[in-house]
Amino acid sequence: MSKVDLLPGTLEMLVLKTLSRGSLHGYGIAQRVKKLSDEVLQVEEGSLYPALQRLLVRGLVTAEWKQSETNRRARYYSLTAAGKKQLGAEISDYERLIGAIGRVLANA
Amino acid sequence: MSSIMRRLWMLITRSRYDRELKEEIAFHVEARERELIAQGIAADEAHFRAQREFGNPLRIQERSRRNVMFWWEWIVQDLQFAIRLIRKAPAFTTVIVISMAIGIGATTSIFSVLNAMVLRELSVRAPGEMYLFSWSVAKRDGADDLMSSIDGSYVQRDGRYRSWSVSFPLYESLRQRQTQFEDLFAFAANSQEINIGIEGHSYPGLYVGISGNYFNVSGVTAFRGRILDAGDDTKTSTPVAMISHRFWTQMGADPNIVGKTATVNGQLLTIVGVTPPGFTGYDPSVKTDIFVPLQHYIRDLDRLQGPFIAPDGKQFASFAQTDLAWWLTVGGRLKPNANATTAAAELNSLFRQHLSGVMPARPATAEVPLIETEPAGRGLDSVRSQYQTACLLLLGLVGVVLLIACANVSALLLSRATARQREIAQRLSMGASRGRIIWQLLTESLFLSLLGALAGFALAYWTSSGLAALISSTRDAGQFEIHMDGRVLLFTAAVTFLSGLIFGLVPAVQVSRTDPMSALKQVTGTTRTERGHWPGKLLVAGQLALALLLMVSAVLFTRTLRQFGKTELGFDQRNLIIFNVRPGLNGYTGAKLETYYNELRRRVGSIPGVQSVTMAQRGPVGQGAHITTVTLPGAQGTSGQSQAHSSTFGPWSDKETPVHAHLVGDNYFNTLHVPVIAGRAITQSDTATAPKVVVVNKTFVSRFLKNQNPIGMIIRSNKTDYTIVGVSGDVKYARLRDDVPPTMYVPYQQRRELPQWMAFMVRVQGDARNASRAIERAAAEIDAGVPVADLMTEQGVIDRTLFVERTFTLLSSSFAGIAMVLACVGLYGTLSYMVARRTNEIGVRMALGAQRSNILEMVMRDGWKMALLGVAMGVPLTLAAAKLIESRVYGISPRDPLSLALGAALVLSIALIVGLLPAWRASRVDPMVALKYE
C-alpha cells in the first residue's frame, strides 16, 4: 500500500486528535496515526518531535514521565484545555476547507 | 502561563530538557526495535532497521530544540563557540583584529571629518526648520544693473550664477511682508577684519553684523551673560557685542568678561555675553570673534568703506539705505505648517514688487533673479560643497583600504577554514545543516569584525583629533570640532557589519561545500588540496590591485605637491616675513596714517637681521588680488588684428579691460627679489604729488603691448592717467594654480586715498622667530591698539595655501602604505600556507632530485603569478578611477603613464621581496622530515 504525505499543517491536528482519547508517548502517537489511517498516513519522526515541542511551548499539550506498557520510562503527552479548544477550532477549519474543495471538485 | 514563560522555563531547565529529549528519542527507537522483533525479524536486523528508519537522531533533536529556543540563544551559542575558537588561535585572531582595526579605524576617522565638516547640523534649535535665501541668474552679468557690489560668494551651481546676499532695504521689505516664516533674520555676508582691544591687549579678529533677532530666531542661548536682542539693534541703542566662545577661550576664559568693554576698530562696545561653544554662525568656514548688532555694523561700514557711492558717482547713501550694495544674507525659521517652495514663491513675488518700486524704469526683458529657499540646518551650502568632494574622495580612498583589509581577513579565514574542514565535516555528519554552519561561521566573522571595530574606534578617536588639529590650523578651513556622535557610531556599526559579512561570506560558503565523507577520509598534505586554493589567490591578487590603485593615487598627489613646490613664484619666498597692520580701522587717516606706515617701516628696518622692508596692500600668494579696469589710449592692437576686431577684447581701444592692480611701496621689487626687466622700479620719489607712474609685469606687456615699447605708455584707470616706467617679472598672487594675470603696480601714495591696512614684507637674515618678536614689539611701541595680524613666514603662507594638497599627499601616502602592508601580509600568509600544504610534495620533489633553487623558483613563481595578476587587474581599475581624482591633480595627467609604471613597479618589487621568505623557507625543507610530515 502506498503511503501518502500529510497535508501541510495537518500534523498538529492529528497529534491533538490522537491525544484526545488519552495520553500517549511519541512512539505511540506515530503508531496510532498509522493504524487509524489504515497505514496510509506516515508520520515522519523528523517532523513529529519538533511538532510536539511546538505544542508544548504553545501550552496545547503537557508532558509527564510515566512507566510504559513495557515497563520503561517514557514521556507521555496529554491534551490541555487549551489544546481541546484548539483541536475543535482546527477540525472545524479543516472541515470547511475540505467541504469547499469537495464542492469545487463536484461542481466545477 | 504564556508561551514566553514556558520558553523561559525550558531555557532555565535546558540541560534537563536536552537529556529528556534524548531519552525520549532513544525510547522511540527502542520501541520500534521491539516491534520489529515481535514481527519476527532478527535482533541485529531489527536494531539496524529501527535506527535507519528513524534517521539522524541528532538532527531531529536539533530541530526539536529549535522550536523551544529563543532567537538570541542561537547567537549566544554561536558566540560561545566563536570565542572558544578564537582563544584557541590567539595569533591568528590578533592579525585579523589588527587588520580590521586599521581598516575600520581609518574609515571611521575620515567619516568623522566628513561628518564634522559636511553633515553635522548647526547648533541652533530645530535646525531642520532654518532656511537661508539664495538668488541666481542664468547669465553671469544678468543682474549687474541691480547692484554695484555683491558680498559673500558668487558661484556657479546647476548652470546658474548664485549669491546669498541681498540689500538692506530688500531684507526689510521681505521681512515686513512675508507670511511663511516665523521671522526673518540677517547677517553680513562678509565677516570684516577688525582690531580688538580688551583690557590693554589688542587682537586681530573678525566680526560680523547680525540682526537683533538673529539669536532669538536661531534659538541660541548665551553661554555667559545674555544674547543680543532686538533692543540692541536700533539707531539709538548703546553699542554692545557678544563674543564667541572660541575667542573668549583664546583670551583666557575670563569668568567676569560680561560687562567689560572692548574697543573694536576704535569704537567702545560693552560685552554682554558669550556664545555657546560649538556655535559657529551660519557660515562655519568663518571664525567669527565678535557679533555686533547690524545698526552698529552699518555705522562701521559707512565710516570705513563709505558712504556708499553709486557707479555714476552721484548717489551717496548709507549701507542701510542703498539698494545697490548687496551685502546681507537673509534667512528665517519656517512656520510649522508652511512649505519651503510656497515660501520661495511668495518671496519671489515680494522681490518683484520691491524691484518695480525702486527701479521703475528697468526694462521688462531684463532678467529678474530667482530667489530660492535653501535648507540651512547645516550652514551655508557653498562652504559645505567646497569640502564635500574632497572628503568624499578621501572616504573613497580609505574605503579601498577597508576593502583590502576585508580581502586580507577573508583570505586568512579561508586558509583556516580549509584547515577546519574536518571539524566542519564532523558537524555536518552529526546533523548540522549547511545553513547552520554558514551562520556559525558568519557569527564568527561578525564577532571578529566587532573586535576590530572596537580597536578601530579607539584608533579613529585618536587620529581624528589629530586630523582636526591639522585642518583647524589653516584659517581657510574654518572652525569645526570632531565629535564621535551617533551618526559616526551608526556609520561604524554599518561598516563593521558589512565588513564582517563581506570577509566572512566567501570562506563560509566555501567551507560549507565540504563533502563530509571525503573530508573525513582526507589526509592533509596531499597535493590535491592545493589545487583548489584559487579563491585565496584571487583575494591576494585583488588586494594587490587595490593597493596599486592607492599607490598610484599617492604618487599622483605627491607629484602634484611637488609641481606646486616647483611652481615659478616670481619672487624669493625664503627668509621673507609677512604681516598685516590695519591702523585705518582705528581711525588713522591722511597724514597720520602715512606717518604710522613710515614709522613702522623705519622701526622694522632697524631690527637686527632685517635686510630690507617694503609694504603693499596685499602680499603675494594667498592674500587675494584687487582687480581694476584699464584702457591703453596710446597703444595699438597686437599685430595681425584689425582695429575693429581687436576693439572687442583689448584695452588699446576704449574698451575697459580688467587687470590686477597692486598698491605697493618703494623697495618692493628689491625686497621680494622680483627682477625689473626694463625701465625702473617704484622709488621713494614717486610721492603723492609726483607724476603718476606704474610698473607692469611681463604678462601685461606680452598680452597687450606686443612689439611696442611699453616705457612711457599711458594707462588710464579710474579716469586717471599713469605712465608706465618699468616692466617687472611675473609674480603669482592669490592661488598657485592660476596663471599670472596682466598686473600693474601703483605707488600706494598715488591713489586717491591711502589704504587702511597694509601688508609688510620683511627680508631677514637668520632666525625668523627673533625678528618676528621684534616686529611685534616695534608695532606695540607705536600704538598698542593696532595689533600685528597674520605674522608668518612667506613659506608658511604658501604651505597654508597648499593645505588641501598636503593633506591629500599625507593621507593618500599613509593609505597606500597601510594598503601595501596589508596586501603583503595577505600575500605572505597565503604563500606560507601554500608552502605548508605542499611540504609533503616538496619533500617528494627533493627526494627525486629537485635542487633547492628549483623549489625556491617554484614558490616564487606562485608569488609572482599573484602579483602580476594583481597588477593586471589594478591597471585598468586605476585608469577607470582616474576621472575621480582628476580635479585634485595639478600639472600631470591622472592617467600619467610614469606614475602608473612607478606604482606598478613598487607593487611588483614589494611583492617579490615578500615572496622571498616563504620561498626560501620552502627551499630549506629537509626532504626526510617533509616526507614524514603530515
Shape of chain B: elongated
Helix content of chain B: 40-55%
Got a strand count of chain B? 28
- Uncertain runs of chain B with pLDDT below 50, 5 residues or more? 524-531, 639-649
Q: Mean pLDDT across all residues of chain A, rounded? A: 85
Spatial arrangement of strands, main beta sheet of chain A:
1-3-2
The total strand number of chain A stands at 3
Structural class estimated from helices and strands of chain A:
alpha+beta
User: What is the overall silhouette of chain A?
Assistant: globular
Percent of residues of chain B in beta strands? 15-25%
Main beta sheet strand tally, sense and closure of chain B = 6 strands, antiparallel
Distance between the termini of chain A: 31 Å
What does this structure look like?
- The complex is a heterodimer of chains A (108) and B (934).
- With 108 residues, chain A is an alpha+beta fold.
- In chain A, 57% of the residues lie in helices and 15% in strands.
- Chain A is built from four helices and three strands; from the N terminus they run H-E-H-H-E-E-H.
- In chain A, a hairpin with a 5-residue loop joins strand 2 and strand 3.
- In chain A, helix 1 packs across helix 4.
- The radius of gyration of chain A is 15 Å and the shape is globular.
- Chain A starts with 9 loop residues before the first helix and ends with a helix.
- In chain B, strand 3 and strand 4 form a beta hairpin.
- With 934 residues, chain B is of the alpha+beta class.
- About 2% of the residues of chain B have low confidence.
- Chain B has 28 helices and 28 strands.
- Chain B is elongated and about 130 Å long.
- In chain B, the strands form six sheets. In chain B, strands 1, 3, 4, 5, 16 and 17 form a six-stranded antiparallel sheet that branches.
- At the A-B interface, helix 2, helix 3 and strand 3 of A face helix 1, helix 2 and helix 4 of B.
